[in-house]
Design goal:
The chain is mostly helical. The chain folds into two domains: 35 residues; 92 residues. The protein has six helices and no strands. Helix 3 runs antiparallel to helix 4 and helix 5 packs across helix 6. The N and C termini lie far apart (51 Å).
């Protein structure tokens, strides 16, 4: 029975953010459809799809790899964690810098020329927005 409790606890811990994010998105749909014109709401939908893809690109499945290699008998979990964390932070900073530097061509490539703020919204944490 303790294995089931542990599984439920870990599922809740790791799945809670996903559940909260989806619930917030669901609750915001009436606001979006009431505030945005149909063509503007299409932009929001497209940006959400891009964010889902960027979540994969930014983490590149490293959590699965970390759990796989950390469960090996001779694994130094602390050293492995620090290496993985450093790699993800460095690559995320490089990707974010690329999005910021090339915001104009990326926005044009997405079909929104002159709307670089869309790319910046995707690249920067909300607290860093101008």
């Amino acid at each position: 029975m303790s294995i089931a409790k542990k599984l439920v606890g870990q599922t809740a811990a790791y799945g809670l953010s996903s559940i909260v994010g989806r619930a917030l998105n669901y609750l915001l749909v009436p606001l979006y459809t009431g505030v945005f014109a149909p063509d503007e709401y299409g932009v929001v939908t497209k940006l959400y799809a891009i964010v889902a893809f960027l979540n994969i690109v930014y983490t590149y499945g490293m959590e699965t790899a970390f759990f796989r290699f950390s469960n090996k008998p001779d694994a130094d979990r602390r050293a492995l964690y620090h290496k993985v964390q450093t790699l993800i932070i460095c690559s995320s900073l490089l990707l974010t810098a690329g999005f910021i530097l090339f915001a104009s061509p990326i926005a044009a490539g997405l079909g929104y020329p002159g709307r670089e703020e869309y790319v910046l919204w995707l690249a920067l944490p909300w607290g860093l927005m101008p």
